[in-house]
Amino acid sequence: MSTSLDSTDLKILKLLQQDAKMSHKEIGLQVHRTGQAVGQRINRLQELGCIQKYTIEIQHQHTQFVRLLMQNNQFQSFEKFISQQEKLTACYKTSGSACYMIITHFNEIEFKNFIELLSQWGHYSVDSVIKEVHHSP
């Protein structure tokens, strides 16, 4: 089995990123292949690990990027706290001007409460999204 991706494979991946529920027939019409051929390619892409899962994208009203500079060495305590927060999209341990980058989707009151709890671990800065310019699924 070939492990290289051709332009048709890349088009199929892009279409599935835009809408994972597209039928093989619909994809086939756009890439000039039969639905069966598309299904075979998708199976191959899954076997290669190019497609790892099918998921949905939730539209959030509020998105905040929080940078946290730790002022103590309670990394395990902080990471346990973070793992219990349901409205976080992600938390990354980073290098540079902060120790962690946290992506949240809180409303104003929830965010205020989250920040108050977060302040026990260090100093933070916040950037709030005002408009999405581009997003690749």
From TrEMBL:
Keywords: DNA-binding, Transcription, Transcription regulation. GO terms for cellular component: cytosol. Residues 5-58 form the HTH asnC-type domain. One of its GO terms (molecular function) is sequence-specific DNA binding. GO terms for biological process: response to amino acid. It comes from the Bacteria. SMART domains: HTH_ASNC (SM00344). This is AsnC family transcriptional regulator. It comes from Acinetobacter rudis.
